[in-house]
Structures are given as structure tokens and as C-alpha cells.
Amino acid sequence: MKMHTLLAGVVFTAAAATAAPVTNTAEEIVITASRAGRAAVEMPQNVSIITARDIEKSGAANVVEALKNTGGIEFRSTSGNSAQAEIALRGFGENSFGRVLVLLDGQRLNRPDMAGINWLQIPLANVERIEVLRGGQSALYGDNATAGVINIVTRKGTAEPVTAAAVDVASYGTLNLRAGTQGSAGPVTYAANIERDETAGYRDRSAYRAWGAGGSLGLEKKEVAGLTLGAAYNVIDFQLPGYLTKQQMEDNPRQSVFPNDDAHTATLNLNLGLKAERVAGGRLEISGVYGRQDLQSNTASWQSWSDVTINSFGVMPKWIAEGELAGRHNLFLAGVDLDFDRLSINRFADDARTLPALNGAVEKRVIGVYARDEYELVDKLTLGLGARAEQCRVSANISPALGGGFDDAKTHHANVAEGSLLYQLDPHSKLFARAGMVYRFPFVDEQVSYVGYGADAFNANLDPEQGANFEAGAELALGQGLTLAATAFLLNMRDEIAFNAVTMQNENLDATRHAGLETALTYQPCPAFRLNAAYTFTSARFTAGANDGNDVPLVPRHHLTVGGEVSLPLDLAAGAQANWISRQYLGGDYTNVGPQLDAYATLDLLLRWTPGFLNGLQIFGGLDNVTDEQYASVAYRGFMADGYYPSAGRTWKAGASYKF
User: For the segment 473-498, what is each residue's pLDDT rounded down to a tens digit?
Assistant: First the structure.
């Protein structure tokens, strides 16, 4: 379908409807990702909040679907569904998920190896809200926070008991069942949920089946102390359809030529939090986390079968003091992050796992110390200063069956600082500017090769990615329900890490520059009508070396999102959401000599019924990718042929939920 034809339809339908779940800054919500309990309007950066109500109205079945229409965020999928989606922010291409820190109630979900996040380990029934912090956060969070932070906040107990259940069905045999309850008994709060999610998949060999459960217990004495315990468990079995050539995708985008690739993952996350008021004049908070992932991978296409267990531990104490200093408001935050990951690896040369190829262990130990101060210079103008020192040690003891084992280690160091200015024009508007340094430590898979084919080695020459981040922006509430926001950013990076197909190892790239503009508009003159739009321009280019002036692969220059919602008679609401992403070079094409991944546009429609005579009931139906656009969200250059990963075509969906 031609782009101008689609956009003409979008202008018409967006004026009447939306399925967009994004709620921009809302000062009444405390952003826990700030690590100091700040409202979005009090933070000198671009912040978006997606609430549980936004998710419910959108018809989303998982976290990826809840996030995908948020301005500036892109998802790439190698399976055509959300199970293995890769997130991207601020102009990063290959392995972009390593530059976006994803948290679950403050617990890191980013794996130490190069595998992406298992988004289905987060049951949607357990999500209270999603916080999106764009821009580098290395001074506050350290590793992985180069382009931004996504914090998923789970449901906690409520004063009044609430129970909800939902069922969603969709094309390709998709079924989602979820239920949850929350409430309190005296000082004890509780929440629990369970979810089942399965699909046959748009493509052959792209099915997955998952189930998960989670919950929390809390004990709080107001203004004195609080204790919380959270737990989540998830199991997922999924197939891996692999890539297609361009011709194969054009002939039949639903096919797969890899009939024997699949995987199994079991994930456990535990989180213990302690809060004590009036400790040395401030508030002391301590979080302890534990995670375990058992991964079984069967990739016959690479003649590789593996069993990996990842055990992760973390302790994160912090102290927050807020009051007056020299007659002006001041907030001080200081803390320590201690993280330990251990990967136990067994690889085999056959599906029956009778021919060992490699065994070993890789460990990653990180200790970071940080501090941040926010001081009100004059009325409404706040200066923020922060710094962090972090050390990361990667060690590996690898024993391949063919010999050539090794026991080696390397220690990385990072010291960064940042500064910000925030001017609050009114309770709903702000101007801000930030500057600081960012970094990312290598994935353990980048530092260590342990594939079991006789070429295993410790890559001691690899250095951390480093960069300088600058941004300035504004969010303006102009009255009559109109809000405008814009953020300009510049991120100068050096030593970005990528795989070199010539040398067959991961290397530090030449310097790159990521520059762009994020804009958003929301217009809601009355509860019955809402229009929203977001446009992101990104220029990501090499600024040195043999590829100087070339575009960074897998980074589109333009991303446009338009949507709206309108209330109709008979308790109905109609919605539409359109996305357009421009062309981009294929992964690995640093010389920019190959074909580009085509631009693509999708249009989603939704109709929702919330009958007034039965409070708490919602029924919806909709179509995603109405025009049946045939496209791939990601593709890579290959030796013999380029590899494309088709995305889903037209998809119908329907569901019902009831809350009481």
C-alpha cells in the first residue's frame, strides 16, 4: 500500500479513535526509576508513563504490545511475534537491547550474555505501570543504561480488595488467559496473579507457549518502616523460525527453512525490599534480588545444542535525604549496586546430548557507587549533579572437548558524571537540559567465545563502550487539553562493540554520533476525545575510520506514530494507531553498499465496549496491520544471501475482562 494513501486514512481515523496506551508525564505518579521518588515533571528528561488502565484500554496482550506505540521506541523481532523482541532507543542498531536497561521493580532483567530479554517473563496481569526514561542514565544506573531505562512496576496491595480476570484470542491460534487479585489485611498488603499465553505464530516454526505467576507481600508502618517481598516465575517453550532470503520472503513470508530449532526457558525472580525512615536524617532503602534462568537451546541449523543456567544476585542499598540547604530545597541520593552473574554452560554436538562439545563457567561481578544531588538554585530552577564509579570483572573457565581450554579474566573500570538543569514553568510544564557520560561493559559473550568448535578464546582486547550524552527539551501544557513535548539529543560514542565477520570476533568500532529529535503531541479537550502523535528523527553515523560518514545499520531516520480515541454511543469507544518507520541499512552493512530494509507502515484499529450497566466489564475487538503490510522489522547481511525476518501480517484480536 502506498504511504500517502495510508497516511490519508490515518488522518481520518486518528481524528476519531486510538489504541495508543501512552500517557505522558503525570506529576501525581511517583517515578520509582528516578531512584529518589520523583514525579515525572520533576525530572530533567523525557519521561513516559504507561499505566495499567492504559494497557487495559489498548487491548495489549503482553509488555511488548503495551510499549510498541510509545514514541521513540522500536522493536525488532526475529520470530514475527513478541516472544523474542529486541528493543531499540536513541539510534542504536545491532544488539540495541544491550543499551536499554530493563528493570522489574528495580531488578535488572538484562542478561549478562548476548541473548535478549524474555518479555513474556513479565505477566501483564502483574503490571501496575511502565516507566520509560529516555537518554543516558549511566551515572544513576551504570551498565546497559546508555540509551534509556524501562522500569516495569508490578502491582502491590490495595486498601480495598480488587480481583480481575481476562481472556484474549487472536489470529494464528493465539490465546491469553490471565487473572489477578490484590488487597490488604491490616498492615499487610498482598497481590497475586497467574497468566497463560500461547500462539501457533504467524510464521511456520514460530509458536510459543508460556505460563507464569507472580505476587507480592508487603508490611508497612507509615512514616516508620516497610518491608516487601516479590516473586515471579515463568516457563516458555518457543520455536525459532530463522531467516529467509529476500526472494523466499516475497514468495511466502510465513514459511521457515529451519525445522528443528527451538528453545525452553524457565525463569525465577525474587525481590526483597526494606525501607526505614528517619535514618541519619534521611530514608534508607535496601533491595536484595535473586534470579535464576534455566535455558535449553536446540539450534540444529548451527549444529549446536546447549544447556545454560544463569544465577544472578544483587544487593542495592541507598540513602535519600530531602530538606532545606541554605534556605533552598535540596535532595541528596547515594547508593551502592552489587551485582553477580554466573553462567554455567554445557554444549553438545548432537540433539541427544551424548557428545559433549564444551563445558565451563563465566562470571560477571559488578560493583558501582553513585551519588546525586538536586538543589533549587532559585524558585523553580533546580541544578542536578551526579557521579558514578563502577568496576566490572569478567572471568571464564572454559573446557572445549577438542582442547584449547582457558582460564582468564579481565577487569573494566568506568567513572562518569552528569549535570542537569530543570525549570518548572508550572505544575504541568518544564524545560530541561542534561549533559553526562555513558558507558556499557561488554556482554560476556562478546568478551568470551565459548561456542565449542575449536576457536574458543578470551577476547582480552575488548574495551567498554563509552560516550558523551547531551540533550535539551521541553514539555508544555498549553491548556484546553493540549500538551507538546520535544527533546533534542546528541550522543557521541566511541568503542561501540560489534561482530566483525572478517576477523570472526567482536571488536570495538570507530566513533559514532547519534543525534536526533523526539517530539510528541497530545490533545484531549474532553474525556470523550483524544488525539496523540509522536515523531522521532534519528541520524546515527560513523564519525571516524574507514566508514566515516556512513549510516549505522538498523537505524531508521524517521519514526512516526499517530493515534486517537473517540467515545461513541452505547458505551462504545473506537480507536486507531498508525506507525511508519523509514528505510534502514541491513545489520552488518557498515559500508552501506548493500540493499536497504524497506520502509513500512502499519495501521491498527480497535473497538471497545464498557457497558455502564455492569461496572468493571470490558469487551474489545480489533485488527492489527489492517492493510496486511508485508515487511521485515530486521534483516542482516550474509555471506551467501541476506537474511530477513518477516513480521506478522493482518491479525484480528478480541478479548474480554472483568474487574470486581
Answer: 999 999 899 999 999 999 999 999 88
